[in-house]
Specification:
The protein is an alpha/beta fold. The N and C termini lie far apart (74 Å). α14 runs parallel beside α17. The chain contains 26 helices and 12 strands. It is elongated and about 85 Å long. Among the domains are: 148 residues, Winged helix-like DNA-binding domain superfamily/Winged helix DNA-binding domain (Arc Repressor Mutant, subunit A), CATH 1.10.10.10; 131 residues, Rossmann fold (3-Layer(aba) Sandwich); 110 residues, Tetratricopeptide repeat domain (Serine Threonine Protein Phosphatase 5, Tetratricopeptide repeat, Alpha Horseshoe), CATH 1.25.40. A hairpin with a 4-residue loop joins β11 and β12.
Length: 574
């Protein structure tokens, strides 16, 4: 593909990073950090990042003064190496650095707008993003992992498009009857991201609106097949916006800063008539918004994602008479499992099987493996020996596909840990899931369970608290409350465990796990009458729990001493 005539350089980020001038000569910077800087800019939504953001990714362990000096030195070296190309390619001011889109041809931007470029550039499905780049900074490595995940997902779609085009071309020569045998494409929701509204934001807070909307989109994509049209960048190629006129919904964020206070508002519009479906706001301090460990932004991301997911499901129910399509199949199946009845679990598994051949099959296979945990822990259905083997094969098959979806990884981790006792593998999967997306309440909850099963109770408790906060608006929130009750029990915080268990049971009265831990803590605090009532309710839900051997499988803890302590606490009732 020929670069546009106004470009002065070509930047390749698929495969090894490479920069060439207009004549095709290599001018790739010698410094690893300089190459990393170009990569960070090339993959930014508008090829622009603030100095603060760049310093955090390249010198995260240095103080502000040292990292500022390092960035200035790096720009000096890059200017020296590139000569006249530097000013033609880069726009630098005291707040931000931008790679000029009209001057630099970037392979990934052109591949996304014209999939046939993949063939011209000899890119294969196995070609990695920024192959071999090595920058010794944990923040950069985390960013790289996320970008490779996004590229992997996008590349799968792009190569599928090429295949579809080839198939369509071949189909033109087929008899008319054969055309009706073609596979119906997976339906997808089309969502546009409008330019942010920023009022009073300074250099430090200018990126917060982007961070918020990108976090919302990332969480949504893990459970819903979406086509995203980024309408924030008006300077990019228009090819990628073909189809954006047919979007279903539009997203927008407004950030209002008044001194040290930041008000963030998220808007969801119906694209059909540009009507506002709903909006919601939070107000926080600038320091809280900029603190990576703060729950504030992550909680607001989850709150909006949960509400959007419910909106998608309601729209599907009211506008379509048939069964839910893959647009909401993953979310619908997960919600069905957590209804905690045999019929709902069967329906969820059937829904996932029906969509096993779609682009989301990796996620659906992981969720089918996850369903086995309800059969073991909640006495739903039966997990026969053949089912155990099938579930193991299903989980390992999904693992071999190298999933880049944090929900998939959390489902697989729970299946491997809770069902098959492979807690080390589960821990590795959950660590990867959190690196991929630290804003998913579902992942934090299952990370807490894993830490609890292996005896790391403090880490488990902190993760459970985070999941409860992030998932407070989720239909699965009762499960997060129950995990907090479990970790509180392990730390001897009986009153918190009782309160958390009861919060869970108010939302889902049939959750046997919450009943089990409520029973333990009522017993430990000598509230015998309440404990007997809870035990009676538990036996109605799970009659097999009266058997001491079944009790061990329900608690399923690695530390036998702890498991024995829990069972002995309730022994007087059994």
């Amino acid at each position: 593909m020929t670069a546009p005539t106004q470009t002065v350089a070509r930047l390749f980020v698929i495969g090894p990073l490479r920069l060439t001038d207009g004549a095709g000569n290599s001018v790739t910077p010698r410094s690893k950090k300089a190459c990393a800087l170009l990569a960070l800019l090339a993959l930014a939504p508008r090829c622009q990042r603030t100095r603060v953001w760049l310093r955090d990714k390249l010198w995260s362990e240095s103080c502000e003064r040292k990292s500022s000096t390092s960035l200035r030195q790096l720009l000096f070296e890059l200017r020296r190496d590139l000569g006249g190309l530097f000013d033609a390619m880069l726009e630098v001011d005291r707040h931000a650095i931008m790679l000029r889109r009209d001057a630099v041809w970037i392979d990934i931007r052109n591949v996304e707008t014209d999939p046939n470029t993949l063939t011209a550039l000899r890119i294969t499905p196995d070609t990695d993003l920024l192959e071999g780049i090595d920058v010794a900074d944990e923040e950069f490595e985390d960013w790289l992992l996320l970008e490779r995940q996004a590229w992997h997902n996008r590349a799968t779609d792009l190569f599928a498009q090429i295949t579809d085009l080839s198939t369509a071309s071949a189909a033109r020569s087929l008899p008319q009857a054969a055309l009706f045998a073609e596979t119906i494409p997976e339906p997808r929701l089309r969502v546009g991201v409008l330019p942010n509204i920023q009022q009073g934001c300074d250099a430090d807070t200018a990126f917060v609106a982007d961070h918020l909307v990108e976090g919302i989109v990332k969480n949504l994509r893990e459970l819903h097949p979406l086509d995203i049209y980024d309408l924030r960048d008006t300077s990019g190629p228009s090819d990628g916006l073909v189809g954006s006129g047919n979007t279903d919904h539009l997203l927008r964020v407004r950030a209002l800063q008044i001194r040290h206070t930041l008000t963030l508002t998220f808007f969801l519009y119906s694209a059909r008539n540009m009507s506002l479906e709903w909006s919601q706001s939070i107000q926080t301090s600038v320091d809280e918004a900029l603190n990576f460990d703060s729950y504030v932004l992550a909680g607001f991301i989850n709150q909006n994602v949960d509400r959007i997911s419910r909106h998608f499901e309601q729209r599907q129910t009211t506008e379509l008479a048939e069964q839910p399509k893959p647009i909401v199949a993953a979310m619908s199946a997960l919600n069905m499992m957590f209804r905690l009845d045999d019929r709902a679990l069967e329906n969820a598994e059937a829904m996932l099987r029906n969509h096993a051949d779609t682009a989301s099959s990796g996620l659906f296979d992981a969720m089918r493996a996850y369903a086995a945990s309800f059969k073991v822990g909640e006495n739903l259905g039966r997990l026969q020996s053949d089912d155990v083997n099938a579930t193991s094969d299903l989980a390992r098959g999904a693992l071999s596909g190298n999933p880049f979806n944090s929900i998939s990884l959390a489902c697989l981790a729970h299946a491997m840990g809770y069902v098959f006792h492979e807690h080390g593998l589960a821990s590795d999967l959950l660590d990867k899931a959190l690196r991929l997306n630290p804003n998913q309440a579902f992942v934090w909850d299952h990370y807490a369970l894993n830490r609890m099963y292996v005896g790391d109770y403090e880490a488990a408790h902190k993760a459970a608290e985070r999941a409860v906060y992030l998932g407070s608006f989720s239909p699965l929130s009762y499960s997060y409350d129950t995990t907090l009750a479990m970790t509180s029990t392990m730390l001897g915080r009986n009153q918190l465990a009782i309160a958390s268990s009861r919060n869970a049971l108010r939302k889902q009265p049939n959750f046997a796990a919450a009943m089990r831990y409520l029973l333990v803590n009522l017993s430990k605090t000598d509230r015998e009458e309440e404990a007997r009532s809870t035990y009676a309710a538990l036996l109605k839900r799970d009659p097999d729990f009266a058997d001491p051997e079944i009790q061990k499988t329900r608690f399923r803890l690695v530390q036998k001493g702890t498991e024995t302590d829990l069972i002995s606490t309730i022994k007087k009732f059994t």
